[in-house]
Amino acid sequence: MGFAQEVANFPREIGKAFALNRKQALVFLTCWWCWTLGSMNFYLLPYTQPAVAKTLGVETSKIAEANTTTMLSRAIGAAIFGVLSDQYGRKIPLVVDLVLMGVFTLSSGFVHTYGQFVAVRFLFGITYGALYGVSMAAVLEAVPREARGVVAGFTQQGFGAGNMIASGLHLAMESYGWRSLYYVGAGLTLTAVGLRIICPDYSVVTEAIRENEDILQPTLSPTGATLPFWVKFRYAITHHWPIFIYCTVLTACFNTLGHGHMDVYPSFLETQRGLSIRHETYVTVILQCGGIIGGLVGGYLARYSPKWVPFGFAIVLAPLLPALILPTKWQYLAVGSFFFEFCYGAAIGTVGNILQMVCPHPGIRGAFGGVTYNLGNAISSVAPTIETRLGDNLPTKSGIPDYGRIILILVGIAIGLLSLTLACMPIKNVNLEWDQEDPNQTIPAYEAPAKTIEHNQGHIERAHDIETGAILKRDEQAGVEYMEMSPTQK
């Protein structure tokens, strides 16, 4: 199929990917909305940095450090709630997390000292970090395999949608003060709590098992574990520790690039380009629309290569970087930022699906995706602080902080590192059939050396049980199963 035909078929293929049943659609909407609202509450701070700094009597760079604290604490929440969701199901841990996030968002609007603000944002970071791994694992195990690229790309861009909502609230509530934004953010979080309560746990793995009752492992379950988490984790970290490191480095590059241009960009538009809040909002909304569309496109195209598709979009970011910073009129800034964010969204839109496919054990997918993604965030957390501090210390000739030059330098470095990391992706670790693995096996079936399965119709099918040494036989013609002891046990 040629490129022109692919482009022509794209809308139809996107429609097919979103052709979900009602349960799948509800899970998709819920997970996307949870991640979007969490991101909205996170991005309220970049839009209110100058006002918060003025109220608390500190420099803007100190408020940026509070944002860094939030990013550092995210991995803690990812580990705690990721383990809980892998062991006890996705629903209850996420409901508890959302309630706590609403409380800490609300508390952010009541602080009166810098110390209080840092403490509250640290606690908020724990709850925000829990959202990604749990939500991404839940939505990708709920949708068909052919839809996962598009669904993952759109869900990933929930942070872009959250940024856009935060920008709109900043414009709409300008006259009410910065504290009111956090009150509204906490109130909106209740909608996510309600959705998660009515949304069932659902998995296509479970449905496949119910439809195929003759499967050799009838106790397969996507969540709700019978095997202790530490057993699964010990196997994964012992045999596959390099993939933990690789995924952390990959997400660190993605997030350094993302936070490096998004977190300080509102301050750049306001102080260095002199845009009004209205025009700043216009630019931000157009930028994030580019990211959301890019996430869909990148997620769809990743079916051809989860490695080279994001690599290609990452490379294209380099020549587009000047268009993000150099224009002086908001219209040109909007155009440049749209295409830059489109390519960034297309690249990072693949990461949620990648983390699920390379997870070394199917029983730790919530924790693995959340922890590696948020450890990458922790590494990238210094980016906004560095940019803010250097911008303040290296002003332009007119004395205005030179955020634009710092963004160009830092993001340029991040693009180079991201491209190199993507080019080194270990494709051999990609498992497209993770949804057929039993999360309660110590050793995943796809790499158990003692298990062999022959699928020859009309013949006997064998599977070696590594626990008992027994042979499970199935006679396809007779339609019966029976156990035969191995020679050593007779």
From TrEMBL:
Database matches in InterPro entries: MFS, MFS_dom, MFS_trans_sf
Compartment list: Membrane
Annotated GO molecular function terms are: secondary active monocarboxylate transmembrane transporter activity
The cross-references to SUPFAM superfamilies, in alphabetical order and at most eight, read: MFS general substrate transporter (SSF103473)
Q: Which UniProt keywords apply?
A: Membrane, Transmembrane, Transmembrane helix
Main localisation, per the record? membrane
Segments crossing the lipid bilayer: 25-46, 66-85, 92-112, 118-140, 243-262, 282-301, 308-326, 332-355, 367-386, 406-427
Where is each Major facilitator superfamily (MFS) profile domain found?
A: 27-429
Give GO cellular component annotations, separated by semicolons: plasma membrane
Biological process GO annotation list?
plasma membrane lactate transport
State the annotated membrane topology for this chain.
Multi-pass membrane protein
Please provide an example of a Pfam family that matches this protein in its UniProt record: MFS_1
In terms of PANTHER family, this protein maps to: CARBOXYLIC ACID TRANSPORTER PROTEIN HOMOLOG
Q: What is the protein named? A: Major facilitator superfamily (MFS) profile domain-containing protein
